[in-house]
């Protein structure tokens, strides 16, 4: 009886197999339109990706009618990035619970990671909202914002990694586990999203979508700027305030929201109290006047305190000071005397210093991650790691910045203009490097640009300036990007100009360039011969590093936000 049953079953299997084969053939020969559209779309979207396999895998969730919409693929890339950051955040929380009580250094690093990954999620939330609420043409016009926010995600991920001390076995073990299981994924998937956004113009043209390719600066002047030079979204009270802060005697024209004075003549005696007074739901500028005095306090402007304008009685008179340092067991990020995490912050006529000295090793005076922030007429003083330009678009003008090793460092789009950069005397057997940019992926919108600055030695360094080696910079990460242009470079800068990062081969992937510099240190004939060193670049190539291009915001071509806040600047070249 069992033999009689087997034959029909086998026959049935064959029939079903033939039926399936027929279905497959019909679909194959008929070329399922949705599948064909999806495959072709992914091919176009991923053409600019370094890791095409990961890109295609990231976008495979897009199907159905969405497969013909390029915006759906951008949304999918942002969502995948968000999912990877959430996974990393949850892992940092779990690791903190498991290991935090055993080791104070591990707990400090993991707590910092949670804060940083939360900032990354904030950037991704803005990205998600922008893509969701706009058509593809509007998304394209705001590519600078999306690239900035996505670059910030990698910056926060890198900052999290840097918080662990590789020389301590416990911390290194946790770091390696964290990296392999989640943090590496954050960088790779975010890089895919950046690759897509960097090639968006070409992608949309291949989708046969009509784009407005007119220079955004013309559109801005026609549509977004009123006859006073302010963007239309800038409040009337803000325009009046910022316009009043010009020329001699401007302080007498400004009415601050609060005054800080150590002698009790203001509303508060400490800057920390003044920032804590920031009103919930504030929409306009919140102006804090810090009277002359030395303020020995550690300050963090929270991300919710947007658009603070803080000014003092001049950098020689209003001084914020601290001395936290890595040598005393404090993580680099937490050594900052003054830290700003809020967008739209403006600091004016003040000093921010870290007095730990060269023996303190990493000791940050100012850490800034506020998007579209500016510091004007400020002194930022320290030794190693003085100015931490952590992430997001930043501008510095008429400042004095001093230090020794990597004293301008970070992973952000930063432009330092018309300032004095002072190299100090380091400890014996040390060298000095002005910059250490941490751009980690090719299409990140980050880098350090020094324009129309004087790069000089301090008086203590001057007599031994040829014995102590000083360089323009060294590459902190693989795609380090630094440009020095229209600046005066002193004779103490080593003829090599740039110094390698120990144990790396970043010399092949970095981007270092110089343009229209003067002074005895500007001679490039004996500069290093790295693949990534461009030497003196053309004016056309240098143009991408002017404020108009390098600090783009939204659909605005050029740093119109600098115009809006009436910060003095060059949008283009000095000459």
From TrEMBL:
<dbReference type="Pfam" id="PF04043">
    <property type="entry name" value="PMEI"/>
</dbReference>
<dbReference type="GO" id="GO:0042545">
    <property type="term" value="P:cell wall modification"/>
</dbReference>
<dbReference type="InterPro" id="IPR000070">
    <property type="entry name" value="Pectinesterase_cat"/>
</dbReference>
<keyword id="KW-0325">Glycoprotein</keyword>
<keyword id="KW-0063">Aspartyl esterase</keyword>
<dbReference type="Pfam" id="PF01095">
    <property type="entry name" value="Pectinesterase"/>
</dbReference>
<dbReference type="GO" id="GO:0030599">
    <property type="term" value="F:pectinesterase activity"/>
</dbReference>
<keyword id="KW-0964">Secreted</keyword>
<comment type="function">
    <text>Acts in the modification of cell walls via demethylesterification of cell wall pectin.</text>
</comment>
<feature type="domain" description="Pectinesterase inhibitor">
    <location>
        <begin position="37"/>
        <end position="196"/>
    </location>
</feature>
<keyword id="KW-1015">Disulfide bond</keyword>
<keyword id="KW-0961">Cell wall biogenesis/degradation</keyword>
<feature type="transmembrane region" description="Helical">
    <location>
        <begin position="6"/>
        <end position="26"/>
    </location>
</feature>
<feature type="active site">
    <location>
        <position position="406"/>
    </location>
</feature>
<keyword id="KW-1133">Transmembrane helix</keyword>
<keyword id="KW-0472">Membrane</keyword>
<comment type="similarity">
    <text>In the N-terminal section; belongs to the PMEI family.</text>
</comment>
<protein>
    <recommendedName>
        <fullName>Pectinesterase</fullName>
        <ecNumber>3.1.1.11</ecNumber>
    </recommendedName>
</protein>
<dbReference type="GO" id="GO:0045490">
    <property type="term" value="P:pectin catabolic process"/>
</dbReference>
<comment type="similarity">
    <text>In the C-terminal section; belongs to the pectinesterase family.</text>
</comment>
<comment type="pathway">
    <text>Glycan metabolism; pectin degradation; 2-dehydro-3-deoxy-D-gluconate from pectin: step 1/5.</text>
</comment>
<keyword id="KW-0378">Hydrolase</keyword>
<dbReference type="InterPro" id="IPR018040">
    <property type="entry name" value="Pectinesterase_Tyr_AS"/>
</dbReference>
<dbReference type="InterPro" id="IPR035513">
    <property type="entry name" value="Invertase/methylesterase_inhib"/>
</dbReference>
<dbReference type="GO" id="GO:0004857">
    <property type="term" value="F:enzyme inhibitor activity"/>
</dbReference>
<keyword id="KW-0812">Transmembrane</keyword>
<dbReference type="InterPro" id="IPR011050">
    <property type="entry name" value="Pectin_lyase_fold/virulence"/>
</dbReference>
<dbReference type="InterPro" id="IPR006501">
    <property type="entry name" value="Pectinesterase_inhib_dom"/>
</dbReference>
<dbReference type="InterPro" id="IPR012334">
    <property type="entry name" value="Pectin_lyas_fold"/>
</dbReference>
<keyword id="KW-0134">Cell wall</keyword>
<dbReference type="InterPro" id="IPR033131">
    <property type="entry name" value="Pectinesterase_Asp_AS"/>
</dbReference>
